[in-house]
């Protein structure tokens, strides 16, 4: 059972998260290599998903499109809590049961015991504490896929597993988040087509290579597309065997106060006025003027029917987005529940009592706590069901969100503590002088960012967000910016909940489209709102926030900051300078640039909120002195030089070999190496005679079934199926180009050996019978020790066979060429600009770009190479390859496990004699296991290019060079030419003895 939380964590409000994370990390150790304990304790479907999401090979193939550490921990903790630990007490494990298993010491706190005994915690309930901008929606979608695939697999086997469901409801706190969720699941709204959306732009479709294994992809698409209901369709739309209902919280609230709009007022904890109480108690007064038109009454009646419909569903999993709105509110020491939570509890009781764990609640929030008290007596009460904690400070340290800095200005520091709008005797508001000063300071910072960012990228448009105290102040701010600061009408956009009512639905869609696409357009430059945009406003270019509001509640301050946390500069070019910024902020120093830095023009009265962030190195300060520094730091654009064509590189790519026929390979099975890593007796210990066991899908390393090895028919069918899958895996993996999407193989396509798969199957069969274990092996024979063919399903044996045949097929591959090969040249100049740091780059007169740069953190060897190439008279041209800009210049190689991957060389160098692909490696990198395989692939590529006519490849031959740190510095110190070193160190043909040794 799980390791108990340490005694010192008893009073920690996050004790459950800490203990569950420790336990999860222990049983998930080695999951990247398919060796984790969790893979044996979950369903085959879940194990397949875990390998797809977190397997080392799959992650490498997808590149950037992977879950980051916080998302990974959230997904694993949820699966462990609900599937692994939830299986222990099937049918009755609520939140208390989870504490008893992983954090029993935390139950010694009396207040926590009382909270867990509440009926609201009787069902499975999990809260994900994840900082704004760290991808909560991706976690939500991954968990939905996990549930759907498991439920589908269980029903196919005639099992009704209560842990899984196909019925979901996703609840948003307001219209902005609601629309964002519709975008994620249904796709973007199509212009001029009411209620029509482009499913191709939905997250689940765009990032399918991450979320869904290939074989299940179409089934998930069909499920989402056919079963999704917007809030107006819940209970009305006919769906298949499942449902994904997306709504805002008003559907779950009962009472006349649940209007269909966002709440722009701050959380008021004062008692209801008398007339409001009377309004809720007395019968409905008739008449449209009282708000009780037939439309309104019909809406209320429909809402009641929807709650009944949800309660009658056989099962339901509810995802609460921005769930800090939902839970208990404390007033004067008493706890009350909001209507949203009350409705969920009624739905939960209808399922939990009747059929066990048929209601599950998953809450997502960056701020899952209630604020109680004021001033020094203010306390945060965290939700007791938090199972994972990826906080803002961690996200900042890892560079997943912008860094936060407070802008210290003398005029703001001198302000009196009045930061609210001033009001006359009639209550009409006017902007206070303090607010005007803060707006001017924010606008000054915005204008500087606009100038500086345009110098390095004219298509980046920083924005300023002004958060007002109430809707009466927003027009005052807009008027001030236009009349006193010279902004045009298009420059300022005001948004609040009344905007939708005022404009009407059609005009609102146009405004909303403009609002959510501000990153792409120069206007608006300033967005003014109250609290409507505090959640779900997922844009990246908010760089300045001016908070003009009266609340000192930390939860609202944190939500305000969250609107600007999403990264604006995601390219790898800016990674070094952003990392340096984070290090400087952590050390208490001012950042040297404002790339992915969020500037807060904050009033001194709110300094207390930021002190904690600053003490942990999560936030910093900037002063007026920083106005003299460039906002982009020392980032400069390296454009094409005036005579760049003289230094350009044309890289030949063979598009098609005219009438090129692949001659069937001829393998000598008897010469293939046997499996010697383990003895047969050792392998026998890994198997248990007569047991059920899970077979491994040889196509994509997923699990494909529960096989019984006792029957004769199962033995024969299993071995044939094994040969078929093994054939397909080898032929697919070796035949296809690895797509940039990261998919290992396209569905149903096997161009390699497609006319001779039977021959490949025959070779595999012969190899298994005669060579695999060094002597005769009968896979269909049943011996006293067990059934022989089970040996073939062990991972080491599978990996060995795939590796041996993959290499043998490549070495035996031959072509018969007829006609002329078609070649396409790709030029480095297709990328007109690189971004480099001035302090870590030098001007170049031998490169097509004006400057050549290197990494600020580990680029010492690259710097030495660039300087030497610049000085060497025998070097005619050179260029450092940008991994993310020159994406077309990549080479495919085969890793140790037999799967394909890509890598980029470091440099291109041209001399009078040749063009060199150069890779530089420091001494510590020389021992990496796949390095030799990269060399082999690069050499093969060069030999193929050199087989072309000189006119087709652009002139001189191509060679590949790997330079280690010691060799480069040794030749340089002796006054040699770099061109001489390149010619000496280049890899020769396969006939060379040194190369033969290298490839062993």
From TrEMBL:
**Gene3D superfamilies from the UniProt entry:** P-loop containing nucleotide triphosphate hydrolases
Q: Which ranges carry the Helicase/UvrB N-terminal domain?
A: 99-369
**Which GO cellular component does the record give, naming just one?**
cytosol
The entry lists its GO molecular-function terms as: ATP binding; DNA binding; hydrolase activity
InterPro entries reported for this sequence: Helicase/UvrB_N (IPR006935), Helicase_Restrict-Modif_Enz (IPR050742), P-loop_NTPase (IPR027417)
Q: Which superkingdom does the taxonomy of this entry point to?
A: Bacteria
| Name by which UniProt lists this protein | Type III restriction enzyme
Q: From which source organism is this entry?
A: Lampropedia hyalina DSM 16112
């Amino acid at each position: 059972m799980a390791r108990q939380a340490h005694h010192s964590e008893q009073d920690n409000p996050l004790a459950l998260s800490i203990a569950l994370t420790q336990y999860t990390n222990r049983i998930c150790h080695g999951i990247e290599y398919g060796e984790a304990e969790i893979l044996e304790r979950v369903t085959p479907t879940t194990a397949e998903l875990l390998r797809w999401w977190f397997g080392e090979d799959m992650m490498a193939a997808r590149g950037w499109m992977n879950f980051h550490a916080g998302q990974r921990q959230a997904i694993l903790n949820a699966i462990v809590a609900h599937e692994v630990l939830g299986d222990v007490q099937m049918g009755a494990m609520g939140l208390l049961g989870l504490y008893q298993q992983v954090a029993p010491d935390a139950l010694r706190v009396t207040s926590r015991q009382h909270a867990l005994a509440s009926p609201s915690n009787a069902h499975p309930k999990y809260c994900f504490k994840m900082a704004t901008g760290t991808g909560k929606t991706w976690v939500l979608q991954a968990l939905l896929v996990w549930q759907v695939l498991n439920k589908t697999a269980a029903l196919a086997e005639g099992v009704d597993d209560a842990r899984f469901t196909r019925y979901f409801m996703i609840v948003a706190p307001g219209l902005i988040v609601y629309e964002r969720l519709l975008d994620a699941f249904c796709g973007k709204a199509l212009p001029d087509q009411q209620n029509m959306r482009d499913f191709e732009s939905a997250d689940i479709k765009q990032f399918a290579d991450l979320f869904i294994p290939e074989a299940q992809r179409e089934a998930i698409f069909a499920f989402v597309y056919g079963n999704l209901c917007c809030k107006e369709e819940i209970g009305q739309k006919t769906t298949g065997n499942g449902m994904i209902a997306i709504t805002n919280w008003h559907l779950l609230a009962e009472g006349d106060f649940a209007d269909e709009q966002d709440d722009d007022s701050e959380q008021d904890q004062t008692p209801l006025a008398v007339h409001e109480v009377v309004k809720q108690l007395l019968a409905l007064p008739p008449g449209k003027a009282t708000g009780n038109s037939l439309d309104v009454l019909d809406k209320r009646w429909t809402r009641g029917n929807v709650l009944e419909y949800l309660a009658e569903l056989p099962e339901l999993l509810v995802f609460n987005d921005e769930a800090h709105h939902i839970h208990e509110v404390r007033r004067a020491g008493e706890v009350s529940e909001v209507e949203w939570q009350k409705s969920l509890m009624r739905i939960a009781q209808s399922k939990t009592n009747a059929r066990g764990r048929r209601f599950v609640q998953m809450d997502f929030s960056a701020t899952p706590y209630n604020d109680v008290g004021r001033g020094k007596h203010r306390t945060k009460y965290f939700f007791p069901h938090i199972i994972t904690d990826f906080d803002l400070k961690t996200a900042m340290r890892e560079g997943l969100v912008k860094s936060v800095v407070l802008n210290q200005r003398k005029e703001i520091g001198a302000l009196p503590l009045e930061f609210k709008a001033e009001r006359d005797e009639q209550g009409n508001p006017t902007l206070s002088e303090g607010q005007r000063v803060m707006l001017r300071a924010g606008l000054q910072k915005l204008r500087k960012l606009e100038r500086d960012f345009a110098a390095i990228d004219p298509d980046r448009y920083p924005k300023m967000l002004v958060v007002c105290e109430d809707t009466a102040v927003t027009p005052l701010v807009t008027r001030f910016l236009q009349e006193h600061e010279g902004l045009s009408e298009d420059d300022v956009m005001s948004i609040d909940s009344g905007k939708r009512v005022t404009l009407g639905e059609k005009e609102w869609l146009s405004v909303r489209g403009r609002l959510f696409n501000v990153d792409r357009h120069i206007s608006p430059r300033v967005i003014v709102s109250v609290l409507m945009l505090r959640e779900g406003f997922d844009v990246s270019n908010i760089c300045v926030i001016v908070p003009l509001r009266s609340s000192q509640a930390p939860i609202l301050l944190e939500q305000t900051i969250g609107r600007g946390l999403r990264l604006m500069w995601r390219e790898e070019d800016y990674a070094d300078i952003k990392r340096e910024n984070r290090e400087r902020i952590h050390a208490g120093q001012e950042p040297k640039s404002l790339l992915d830095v969020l500037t807060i023009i904050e009033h001194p009265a709110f300094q207390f909120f930021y002190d904690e962030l600053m003490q942990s190195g999560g936030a910093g300060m900037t002063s007026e002195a920083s106005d003299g520094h460039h906002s982009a730091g020392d980032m400069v654009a390296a454009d094409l030089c005036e005579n760049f064509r003289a230094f350009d590189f044309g890289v030949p790519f063979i598009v098609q070999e005219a009438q090129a026929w692949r001659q069937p390979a001829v393998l000598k099975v008897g010469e293939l190496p046997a499996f010697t890593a383990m003895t047969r007796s050792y392998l026998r210990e890994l198997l248990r005679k007569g047991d059920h066991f899970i077979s491994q899908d040889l196509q994509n390393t997923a699990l494909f079934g529960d096989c019984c090895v006792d029957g004769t028919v199962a033995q024969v069918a299993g071995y044939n199926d094994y040969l078929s899958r093994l054939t397909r895996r080898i032929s697919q993996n070796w035949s296809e180009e690895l797509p940039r999407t990261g998919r290992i193989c396209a569905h149903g396509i096997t161009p390699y050996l497609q006319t001779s798969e039977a021959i490949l199957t025959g070779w595999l069969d012969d190899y298994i019978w005669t060579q695999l274990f060094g002597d005769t092996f009968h896979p269909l024979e049943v011996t006293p020790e067990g059934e022989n063919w089970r040996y073939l399903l062990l991972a080491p044996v599978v990996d060995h066979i795939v590796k041996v045949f993959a290499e043998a097929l490549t070495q035996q591959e031959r072509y018969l060429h007829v006609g002329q090969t078609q070649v396409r040249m790709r030029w480095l100049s297709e990328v007109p600009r690189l971004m480099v740091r001035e302090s870590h780059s030098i001007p170049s007169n031998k490169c097509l770009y004006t400057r050549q740069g290197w990494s600020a953190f580990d680029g010492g060897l690259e710097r030495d190479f660039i300087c030497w190439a610049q000085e060497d008279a025998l070097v005619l041209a050179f260029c450092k390859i940008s991994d993310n800009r020159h994406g077309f210049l990549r080479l495919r190689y085969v890793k140790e496990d037999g799967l394909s991957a890509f890598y980029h060389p470091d440099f291109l160098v041209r001399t009078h004699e040749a063009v060199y692909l150069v890779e530089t490696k420091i001494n510590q990198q020389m021992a990496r296991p796949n390095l030799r395989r990269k060399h082999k692939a690069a050499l093969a590529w060069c030999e193929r290019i050199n087989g072309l006519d000189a006119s087709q490849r652009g002139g001189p031959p191509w060679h590949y060079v790997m330079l280690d740190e010691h060799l480069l510095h040794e030749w340089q110190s002796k006054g040699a030419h770099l061109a001489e070193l390149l010619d000496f160190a280049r890899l020769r043909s396969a006939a060379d003895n040194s190369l033969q040794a290298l490839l062993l």
